[in-house]
Input
Amino acid sequence: MQTYVVSDNEQLSAKVRKVLLRAGHDCPDSHVVSLARGATIVAPSELTILVMSPDPERAIATLGEMSTALGGISLRSATAKHVLAVGPADAKLILRTIKAGAEEYLDESEVETELDAVLVRIMSEGATGGEPGQVISVLAPSGGSGGSTLSANLAAVLAKEHQSVGLFDLK
Output
């Protein structure tokens, strides 16, 4: 997965890059770019990690520039693009960063462990390769009317046809 690190913090970007390389991501030194160049790398990047420190305001502005570079498309709705932010554990900053388009926000003091977990999740999402699932709701008018039996039978038929089904009975 082609990965870029957008950062003005050399120490933190080196930590991030080390985790990426250990996980097998394509992130050579040339893929570590400054916040000023952040918007220029969105198109070729499958995964972009934005380091918020030392200037969170500039990093949030870079998120906006990245969205503009995609033609105004939300970063979260852009196909196969993942944008992660790494920064200090400040609730207001986290909220502003997510609203600006970051998919996830990782605490910079625990970047190694948190980034490892997110990379595993991203890779497993891409490995499924199947169609997105569907949600079917079965509502029974009262207890004892057969809603659970109908749901279980429906799940069994769908499992035979699609090999994978999840059933949640909320009663």
The longest helix spans residues 111-128. Residues 131 and 162 are 11 Å apart (CA to CA).
